[in-house]
Amino acid sequence: MPAKLMRAHRVVGTKQTLKALEAGRAELVYIAKDADAEVTNPVREGCARLRVDVVDVDTMAELGRACGIDVGAAVACVLKE
Prior knowledge:
The protein has helices at residues 3-7, 14-22, 37-50, 60-66, and strands spanning 10-12, 26-32, 53-57, 75-79. It is of the alpha+beta class. Helix 2 (14-22) packs parallel to helix 3 (37-50).
């Protein structure tokens, strides 16, 4: 599990991550490999454009657990301090 994600200031979800990217607040983005590409592609594109590193996580369930939520998450973002 992404240890940095567990203890960091973060946002969970595609919309919140895209907002953080556009605001220049995203430090690192996690994307679940089993998430729908239609959901994750805009985030991947934003990360590439803004040069934010992406970490792939095996499953949405694993990413959700790392974020401390009971459901799967397609995308999560560590925010700059």
